[in-house]
Structures are given as C-alpha cells and as structure tokens.
Amino acid sequence: MAHKIKYQIKNIVAVTSTDEKLDLDLIKKILPNVHHDPKKYNGLVYKISDPKVTVLLNWSGKIIIVGGKSIKSTTQARNIFYEDIKKLGYHPQKNNISIKNIVLLANIETELDLKKIFESNISTNLELEYEMEIFPGLIFKNKEPKFGAVIFKTGKIMIAGLKKMDDIVESIECIQNILKI
C-alpha cells in the first residue's frame, strides 16, 4: 500500500545584513517589541507577531531570522524590521537572505516497523542508525542534498539541515526510498 508523506515547514533559519552597524542600546530603548537578555543572547531579540517570526540583531548589522514558515514570511520579517529601524535613522540594504536551515515535520500517518526498515537498508550505503534501547527513532543522514532525519514508529518524521526550498521534495523522496513506500 502506498503512503503519501505529508509535510509542513516548521522553521526556517536565515541570515542577512543591514550593511550598517547597529546601536543596540538605542534600538532596545525605542522599539517596543525588542528584548535583551545578555545571559541568553548577546544581541537583541526583535519579535514580530504577523508573520510570527523572530529577528536576532547583532551590533555588526548581521541579522538572523528564525521561525519563518516560508521564504515569503522570512522576507516579510526582514522588511518589517527594516521599516522599524528606518524610523531610527538607519538605511538598511535589502541584501540577499541566505537560508541556513529548513526544518520540516512530516507524517505518513501509519505505524512503522523501524527495526525492519533498518535491517532492509543495512546492505546499502545509506547512513542509518537505529538503537531502540538508546533512542526511539531511526536516524538518517543524507549527503546530497545534505540533511538529517529522525523517523519514528508513529510515522512522524523530523527533517532538518536543508538549505534550499528545492531540496524539500528531494528529501521527501529520499525518505520514501528508505521506507520503501
């Protein structure tokens, strides 16, 4: 019986730069949605509610955007932040956004026999780990596109490490090949 893997993007981590040094003290005093906890993170944490995305600010002008569910929401978050700091006299450049990690949650909605899946792939060159006494998931590391996945017996799958949106479909196909579905 063929099973379709359903998936959704849970998090995109991306980086870009304003091309300007940022006065973090000024920003945290004036912008209301900025938090600073130097014990957790040396930079500032700028929260956006729509889209629900967080921008991490560094004095160097480098920013990390986390929590996006699409390239569109990641870009929107950057643009919202840039509009806010323009009010403070900055002139940020809309540099390219570089994706560093895409995290997917997938589900085939059927129970899996992980031991059988592991054993049926032993003779392949696939990088698989399964030690049910230590961890309840089958771990898979793929070289091209580079990503890691954890497959659980419930049929839930977590995929992380993708760098391009185009790699999502290929990663799902790799998982389908391992599961032989």
Structure description:
By secondary structure, the protein is of the alpha+beta class. It folds into two domains: 19-94, TATA-Binding Protein, CATH 3.30.310.10; 102-179, TATA-Binding Protein. The protein has helices at residues 24-30, 71-86, 114-120, 167-179; strands at residues 6-17, 34-35, 44-49, 52-57, 62-68, 98-107, 127-129, 137-143, 146-152, 156-162. It has a ten-stranded antiparallel β-sheet. Strand 3 (44-49) and strand 4 (52-57) form a beta hairpin. It is elongated, with a radius of gyration of 20 Å. The termini are close together. The model has no long low-confidence stretch (mean pLDDT 94).
- Relevant CATH superfamily of the largest domain: TATA-Binding Protein
Output the structural class. Answer: alpha+beta
CATH topology of the largest domain: TATA-Binding Protein
Secondary-structure element order, N to C: EHEEEEHEHEEEEH
CATH architectural label of the largest domain: 2-Layer Sandwich
Shape: elongated
Number of domains: 2
Approximately what portion of the residues adopt beta-strand conformation?
Answer: 35-45%
Q: Distance between the terminal alpha carbons, to the nearest Å?
A: 8 Å
CATH class of the largest domain: Alpha Beta
Task: State the low-pLDDT regions, or none.
Answer: none
Strand order of the largest sheet: 2-3-4-5-1-6-10-9-8-7
Work out the radius of gyration: 20 Å
> Total number of helical segments?
4
* Total number of strands: 10
Rounded average pLDDT: 94
The helix content, as a percent range, equals 10-25%
Could you describe the largest sheet, including whether it forms a barrel? 10 strands, antiparallel
